[in-house]
TrEMBL record:
Species annotation: Thalassovita aquimarina
All copies of domain ATP-grasp, residue ranges: 120-321
Domain of life of the native organism: Bacteria
Keyword Ligase found: yes
Name used for this protein in its record: ATP-grasp domain-containing protein
PROSITE patterns hit by this protein: ATP_GRASP, BC, BIOTIN, BIOTINYL_LIPOYL, CPSASE_2, LISH
Length: 645
């Protein structure tokens, strides 16, 4: 076994590999970019080496720097994770030329599976079923159009060097073929530097089912299947193992086909054979076809680990170190069911736009496995994939595993960025998905129902107001004035909508919150608050951001009352207190000439000092408050003389 390995990756997968390696007694070297100097994967390693700028092209794609780091630190092998250089055969050659071990397949195996058309031809020779289509070298538009006519519409145009849905077009009628071909080629050229395409029969109700394989360079085994049909724009969202509706007959056929595929290229290490499956008439042994092979560990590998009890990263290290396959096919078993949900920083209502932000609070439920590469205080960077975590649940049955996933998602707490958490919860509650009726078009068909924006209740708004005012911890602000309840005011924003909340505090354990025409009663019993008799959800406060952990996370922003005052009353003759507080100091006196921006007083509130500034040039007519006075929101403090007409 290796003494030390270098992980040529970042984020969640680097943390995942490090966890197993260190558990095996293998030391870990991390590499990091400028943006990742204090990242979680660096903290998870025994030592770390800086390899360049924040952009991947300046760091994680610099193979020569990674190899240099491995040699410098005495690492004997390099684990590529997934993405970046994991399927780059030239990098594999360079690693081996440097006298290091690549923890993965050979460069030859990667090359054989790197181009979809060549891979399909190779699979046909190995007796693996492939989708009817044209994978030839003749790229003349007329020839490709004729091939589509022979295959029969609808057809898919796919870039031979493609991935992630790029260079892919669905064509449903001959009249649309040429325009779709031009579009696919242009996108393929831009994305991959290769405009060549292949043509495939489009499966009417497709399911994406893949088989996990593992080889030692000569023989291979399969570790059963995963269903990855729940996709959006060809990107996986929720994966599960095993596939719902799978029969033993079809599982055996798919497993045998996957093993033949791996052995045909002398595959070594972990890999995945992806199949497209016709789900229109149920799963049957003659209804699946080879799509492609991923010559690396997959993002969704934890669901396979859950149902087999196998640590796939441990297997990778052992086989790369020269050991035989740890188990034979007849020793592998399938137990229970598992789901994986991909939690991303993305704005779903705005079209799944990737989001950034500093994670003011991040907590995962103890009931689920959470593979993450970020922590509270970390920043979601614009340079990399915005994944926050993979949430994995397991149960003896699919229903139980799915129920546990729903609970796990409800228990995820993320503050500081928008996420797809609500979208994932909506998917888990989708009746078709719950029934196992999955196909790659499910999300697209029901996208509007799955992506609606959250609408906070008046109780959620009231809780955010109390948090913004600091009234949930029973601080000094909850005192009384002349035996009357103390009044508070705060303005909040939710998703661009501003609203006001007025609070009357009857003591540290009871407040009445008025929002519009509605009044919410907040009462604390012991350490728990209740709103109108219902237990309040947890929340996190970071500066002006209040995140209420309900409905997958509701983010409220406190509007600075001084900003409001500057555009409202303070812009006139009277400088008012923008919130309840203590007049700490007054710098103006009657008859004094002042200029716009001059500091006239200091108000102490919200445990902070706020400067009250002159909104215009003028002359002080009178000072209405003295230092040491406790004032209410809206109280007049200083009045300027009327401007001459």
């Amino acid at each position: 076994m290796f003494d030390k390995i270098l992980i040529a990756n970042r984020g969640e997968i680097a943390c995942r590999v490090a966890r197993t390696a260190r558990a095996m007694g293998v030391k870990v070297v991390a590499v990091y970019s400028d943006a990742d100097a204090s990242a979680a994967h660096v903290a998870a390693a025994d030592e770390a080496v800086h390899i360049g700028g924040s952009a991947p092209a300046e760091s994680y794609l610099k193979g020569e720097r990674i190899i240099e780091a491995a040699l410098k630190t005495g690492a004997q092998a390099i684990h590529p994770g997934y993405g970046f250089l994991s399927e780059n055969p030239d990098f594999v050659d360079a690693v081996e030329a440097a006298g290091l071990t690549f923890i993965g397949p050979s460069a030859d195996a990667i090359r054989k599976m790197g181009l979809k058309d060549a891979a399909k031809a190779l699979m046909e020779e190995a007796g693996v079923p492939v989708v009817p289509g044209y994978h030839g070298a003749n790229q003349a538009p007329e020839h490709l159009s004729g091939a589509a006519d022979t295959i029969g519409y609808p057809v898919l145009i796919k870039a031979v060097a493609g991935g992630g849905g790029k260079g892919m077009r669905l064509v449903e009628a001959p009249a649309d073929f040429m325009a779709a071909l031009d579009s696919a080629r242009s996108e393929a050229q831009t994305a991959f530097g290769n405009p060549d395409v292949l043509i495939e029969k489009y499966i009417q109700k497709p399911r994406h089912i893949e088989v996990q394989v593992f080889g030692d360079g000569e023989t291979a085994v399969h570790l059963y299947e995963r269903d990855c049909s729940l996709q959006r724009r060809h990107q996986k969202v929720i994966e599960e193992a095993p596939a719902p509706g799978m029969t033993e007959e079809m599982r055996a056929a798919m497993g045998q086909a996957a093993v033949r595929a791996a052995e045909a290229i002398g595959y070594k290490g972990a890999g995945t054979i992806e199949f497209i499956v016709d789900g229109s008439k149920g799963l049957r042994p003659d209804g699946f076809w080879f799509m492609e092979m991923n010559t690396r560990l997959q993002v969704e590998h934890p669901v396979t680990e859950a149902v087999t009890g196998i640590d796939l990263v441990e297997w990778q290290l052992r086989v790369a170190a020269g050991e035989d396959l740890p188990l034979g096919q007849d020793e592998l078993t399938l137990t229970g069911h598992s789901f994986e949900s991909r939690l991303y920083a993305e704005d779903v209502p705005k079209g799944f736009l990737p989001a950034t932000g500093t994670l003011a609070h991040l907590q995962f439920p103890a009931s689920a496995r959470a593979d993450s590469g970020v922590r509270t205080g970390d920043t979601i960077s614009p340079f990399y994939d915005p994944m926050i975590a993979k949430i994995i649940t397991f149960g003896p049955t699919r229903d139980i595993a799915l129920s546990r996933m729903k609970s796990a998602l409800d228990g995820c707490q993320v503050a500081g960025t928008v996420t797809n958490l609500r979208f994932l919860s909506a998917l888990c509650a989708h009746p078709g998905f719950a029934a196992g009726e999955v196909d790659t078009g499910l999300i697209g068909r029901d996208i509007d129902d799955l992506t609606g924006a959250p609408v906070p209740t008046v109780q959620h708004r009231a809780l955010a107001a109390l948090a913004a005012l600091g009234l949930l911890d029973g601080g000094d602000e909850t005192g009384f004035a002349l035996w009357e309840p103390l009044a508070h005011h705060v303005a909040l924003d939710f998703d661009g909508e501003a609203f006001d909340a007025d609070v009357r505090s009857h003591g540290p354990d009871r407040h009445s919150v008025t929002i519009g025409e509605e009044v919410v009663e907040a009462i604390r019993t012991g350490t728990r608050w209740a709103l109108d008799g219902t237990p309040a959800p947890e929340l996190a406060v970071a500066g002006d951001l209040i995140t209420v952990f309900a409905d997958s996370g509701l983010g409220f922003t406190r509007i600075d009352p001084l900003d409001v005052a500057a555009s409202g009353g303070a812009a006139g003759n009277v400088i008012e207190a923008p919130m309840p507080g203590l007049v700490k100091a007054v710098f103006a006196e009657a008859g004094q000439a002042v200029q716009e921006g001059d500091r006239l007083a200091i108000l102490e509130a919200m445990k902070m000092e706020h400067s009250l500034l002159a909104a215009r040039d003028g002359v002080v007519a009178e000072v209405l408050a003295e230092p040491g006075a406790q004032v209410e929101a809206g109280a007049a403090l200083i009045r300027l003389e009327e401007e001459e007409g």
